[in-house]
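Following up on my earlier message about zinc ion. Here are the inputs again, as you asked, copied directly from the submission form:
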Amino acid sequence: MSGASGNGSRGNGSRRNGSRPRLRGDGGWQVRVLVPGLPLQSCSVLLTGPQSEQIIVDTGFPQHDSLLLEGLQRAGVKAGDITGVINTHYHLDHFGGNFLFPQAWVYGSKQDFDWAVAIYESVSGGETRREVFRRFYPEATEAEFDRMDEARVLQLLKWMWDPATLGDLARYRWREEQELGLAGLQILPTPGHTPGHLALAVEGIEGPYLIVGDARPFAEDTAAGYDMPPHCQQRFLASRKLIDGFEGILIPGHDDPFSQSREAVTLGQQP
Ligand SMILES: [Zn+2]
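Thanks, got it. Here's what our run produced:
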């Protein structure tokens, strides 16, 4: 946990080949990692906009609120200055700090929210049988359920879920009902990990960024295995293909940013 400082800066300041740097005020967004992604800690990113918008993408576990506040302090931004929050999805480790910013709007997928909250309500009601959980993860294999049992995932959800961490639901805005409506930020539906997962493409001052959440949790695919199985494997792979075609800096849900070029992807896909 103490590795939070400076750890996530790999993508900051680097510029993709051939792109011209933008100047502040040129419409680009400043992109800073507030809390670095680790296997059991989701990445929180601060976006500072040309109109002084301060937006956080993913707010971590409720129990990681001090990490997020420390990250903001290092960035020189007060919690009260945050104007908006975007949630890539509604697994507990991605929205648990939403309550810290009661003045901010929150943007996410209603479909994802309803699905996730139904899981939390189910486990909070004492339901931890795997055959019931299969309703939420119809494709999960027995081995994946065994792993979840071993990791006591359902018990952990039950222990950690508190609707208060969501804050006031009246400030939530849903992708299904309205556009994000901010120049230089584009929501990309990337379902599969969860039913309504979103990624966010950012016109950064130093080039394009893609904040991918758990549509790509780790830079190296071999590092996978800590997170939940995909809700829908087919959609997960289709979303991954979309992500693989992006040129710029990728920020995974549980790892450090890394740079991806189209040439590298093309080469990697050759037989
Ligand atoms: Zn997730």
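One observation from looking it over: The mean pLDDT is 87. Hope that helps, and feel free to reply on this thread.
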